[in-house]
Amino acid sequence: MSDAGGMGRSNVVLSKLSMVGDLLMLQLVFVVLSVGVVTLYPAAFALQRVLPDAIGQEHPQLLRRFWRQFRWAFPRFWLAGLCLYAGSIALAFGLLFWVQTGGPIRIAALAVLIPLTGMIVGLYLSALAVLPRAGEDVTPRSLFRAANLFLLQHSLGIAGGVIALLTWFALLSQLPTLFLVGSGLVPALLAYWISRTTDRRPKKDPDDVSI
Average pLDDT in the 177-182 region? Predict the structure, then answer.
């Protein structure tokens, strides 16, 4: 009895260690791909699509599955991702500029930019949350619509994810070395957690949905 229980606990520990190893492997591939700006968001979307497989430990050959998802995501999302990247950089510089600027206009500018930042981050997390169940024919426009709907339906969960992600960015600014172990995984895991904790659909629903 005790031997069986010990073996069961050992199997659980090994399974968890295997999952952590798979996640870190996917994170390393994401970091390498994110060096090219146009590949950043397709790599993030590919990571999100294979994340449930890594966590569930149900499918082997995760790297092969990741590359297949990346080849699927790149032609669909590279341009939208590049626009999102440029907008994010501009928004970040705008926030830094107005934070360091004095005068009453600073308050008005930050009153616009801070909620706008939260909304964009929330939409991004929503897009990641719906991606694993998205159909193969998804487009940037249909993904945006699905993400917007998810955000409206699960605003509290997304708000918590936005706070957690902004906290992560603040920590990253103090410890840049954490970029190597969490730059892709942290938003992916947050979106995965939000989708799992807010999903109220019956389990018998099909895995793929058309959005």
Answer: 90
CA-nearest of 82, 81, 119, 111 to 94 is 111
Report the alpha-carbon distance of residue 67 to residue 111 in Å, rounded: 41
Report H helices in 100-184: 104-130, 140-153, 155-174, 179-182
Residue pair 27/187 in contact by the 8 Å Cβ criterion: no
Pair 117, 91: CB distance under 8 Å:
yes
d(CA 44, CA 28): 12
How far apart (Å, rounded) are the C-alpha atoms in residues 109 and 107?
5
pLDDT digits (tens, 9 = 90+) for 33-82: 998 899 999 999 999 999 999 998 777 789 999 999 999 999 999 999 99
CA distance 97 to 156: 30
How far is it, in rounded angstroms, from Cα 65 to Cα 132?
13
pLDDT of residue 66: 95
